[in-house]
């Protein structure tokens, strides 16, 4: 299973799923699921100019996608977004070895998300002394 950024695909070339609002300024990701089926997703970017990257959670069949700061935890096999909270200012992220927790910066906060898409604040700007 894999996820990677691609240039806008030709319409109809892959099955498509849209996450967030459909805009001309979205990022496209090509996914390959456990059955080697390929599909593409478009991701709305945040209004701020923040991080843009993908963390593949291969063991779990998921991908953590940051599109211009906006975060998405995607189940590659079901093609569903798991996180329900909109986070629009992520800059960096790391994942633990078991691929069950993603730690990321969000504005002045240090946060984490579990594999089910629930997000929590680990340290807020008051704890960091900002």
Main sheet overview = 4 strands, mixed
| Dominant shape | globular
**Spatial ordering of strands, largest sheet:** 1-3-4-2
How much is the average pLDDT?
Answer: 91
In helices, the fraction of residues equals under 10%
Q: Strand fraction band?
A: over 45%
- CA radius of gyration: 15 Å
Low-confidence stretches: none
N-to-C terminal Cα separation, in Å? 39 Å
Describe the fold and architecture.
The protein is mainly β and 130 residues long. It is 0% helix and 50% strand. The protein is built from no helices and twelve strands. The protein has strands spanning 2-6, 16-19, 26-32, 38-44, 53-57, 62-67, 70-75, 80-81, 90-95, 101-106, 109-114, 119-123. The strands form three sheets. It has a four-stranded mixed sheet, with no helix packed on it. The chain has a four-stranded antiparallel sheet with strand order 5-6-7-8, with no helix packed on it. Strand 7 and strand 8 form a beta hairpin. The radius of gyration is 15 Å and the shape is globular.
């Amino acid at each position: 299973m894999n996820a990677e950024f691609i240039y806008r695909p030709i319409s109809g070339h892959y099955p498509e799923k849209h996450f967030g609002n459909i805009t001309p300024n979205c990022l496209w990701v090509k996914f390959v699921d456990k059955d080697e089926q390929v599909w593409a997703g478009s991701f709305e970017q945040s209004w701020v100019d923040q991080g843009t990257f993908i963390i593949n959670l291969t063991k779990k069949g998921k991908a953590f996608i940051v599109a211009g700061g906006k975060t998405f935890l995607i189940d590659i096999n079901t093609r569903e977004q798991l996180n329900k909270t909109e986070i629009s200012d992520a800059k960096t992220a790391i994942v633990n070895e078991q691929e069950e927790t993603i730690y990321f910066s969000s504005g002045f906060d240090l946060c984490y998300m579990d594999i089910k898409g629930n997000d929590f604040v680990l340290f807020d700007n008051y704890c960091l002394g900002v």
